[in-house]
């Protein structure tokens, strides 16, 4: 395209749900506001309880606390702007705001992939080497594992965001999404993006596949160890410690894979918006609910915390 058709944008317009009637947008605002508040409260409660209750100072809950921090950040990146758009119909976002949103979306997304793999490794050590678990997963080791989970988000987000926003953009500034995701912003570029697209595809595959393979490897060994347990009660006890994590992993990977790895012919903008909502809005809300409802230790800790806060006697062990 001729250089004369390029333009330097100062802002973008997020199309999000502008095609819907105002009444539907008002209803969506209420629904997403409730989900947003539940997400913040649920994950904040997990963080507070795992810090306050001595029974939850094990490595498993240390990583769960990291996951809750991550989910809060992931939610703060996209949902407040979406709520503002639905409420005030202000669909604009500055050039810097769009780049910042994309940067932290990549950062938290990549970090979650690796943190879920680290949590799977923690379950593997706990079940396959229970006697050595306290030594192998000591405070120093789990801090290093958590840092190693968060770190990959920095280079991935920095390279991809900086590279994409260094391209010239066409006259249009309409992003057909409810946040600044890479594919819809890339469609506005007036330059050859072949190398960037190859990098993005390879990077996404590596970011998804490496943690996924680590998770599969951990759970293959966990399954083999559980099958060797003679009693049904012992099998159920060990499996129950993994069930919450397996459900969270399934929700995250299925929704994100359907969003980014579907054939373009089946990937309509509206369909992608719905799938994006599942892992940017719904999954962060479900994670603390899953860990609370399916984990007796968390439920008992929540009960103890509430009883202490209210000054009541606690009957839970």
Helix content: over 70%
What is the end-to-end distance?
A: 70 Å
Number of helices, counting only DSSP H or I runs of 4 residues or more = 11
Q: Shape from CA axes?
A: globular
Poorly predicted parts: none
Instruction: Provide the gyration radius in Å.
Output: 22 Å
- Number of beta-strand segments: 3
Descriptive key words:
mainly alpha; single chain
Describe this structure in words.
By secondary structure, the protein is mainly α. 73% of the residues lie in helices and 3% in strands. It contains 11 helices and 3 strands; from the N terminus they run βααβααααβααααα. The chain has helices at residues 22-52, 59-88, 95-128, 133-136, 139-150, 153-164, 182-186, 194-227, 232-260, 269-293, 296-310; strands spanning 11-14, 92-94, 174-175. α3 packs parallel to α8 (194-227). The longest helix is centred in the middle third of the chain and has 34 residues, at 95-128. The model has no long low-confidence stretch (mean pLDDT 86). It comes from Heterocephalus glaber. InterPro entries: GPCR_Rhodpsn, GPCR_Rhodpsn_7TM, Olfact_rcpt. Belongs to the G-protein coupled receptor 1 family.
């Amino acid at each position: 395209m001729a250089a004369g058709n390029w333009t330097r944008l100062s802002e973008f317009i997020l199309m999000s749900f502008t095609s819907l009637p105002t009444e539907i947008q008002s209803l969506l605002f209420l629904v997403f506001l409730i989900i947003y508040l539940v997400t913040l409260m649920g994950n904040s409660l997990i963080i507070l309880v795992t810090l306050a209750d001595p029974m939850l100072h094990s490595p498993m809950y240390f990583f769960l606390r990291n996951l809750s921090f991550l989910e809060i950040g992931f939610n703060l990146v996209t949902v407040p702007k979406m709520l503002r758009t639905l409420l005030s119909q202000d669909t604009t976002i500055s050039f810097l705001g769009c780049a910042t949103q994309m940067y932290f979306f990549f950062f938290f997304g990549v970090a979650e992939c690796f943190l879920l793999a680290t949590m799977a490794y923690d379950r593997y050590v706990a079940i396959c080497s229970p006697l050595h678990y306290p030594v192998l997963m000591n405070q120093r080791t789990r801090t290093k594992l958590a840092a190693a989970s968060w770190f990959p988000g920095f280079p991935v987000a920095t390279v991809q965001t900086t590279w994409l926003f260094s391209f010239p953009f066409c006259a249009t500034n309409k992003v057909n999404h409810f946040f600044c995701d890479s594919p819809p912003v890339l469609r506005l570029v007036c330059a050859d993006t072949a190398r960037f697209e190859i990098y993005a595809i390879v990077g996404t595959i590596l970011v998804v596949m490496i943690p996924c393979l680590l998770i599969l490897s951990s759970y293959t060994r966990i399954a083999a160890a559980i099958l060797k347990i003679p009693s049904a009660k012992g099998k159920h006890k060990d499996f129950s410690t993994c069930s919450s994590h397996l459900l969270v992993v399934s929700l995250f990977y299925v929704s994100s894979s359907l969003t980014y790895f579907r054939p373009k012919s089946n990937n309509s903008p509206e369909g992608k918006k719905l799938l994006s909502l599942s892992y940017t809005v719904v999954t962060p809300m479900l994670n603390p609910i899953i860990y609370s409802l399916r984990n007796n230790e968390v439920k008992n800790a929540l009960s103890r915390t509430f009883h202490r806060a209210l000054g009541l006697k606690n009957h839970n062990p």
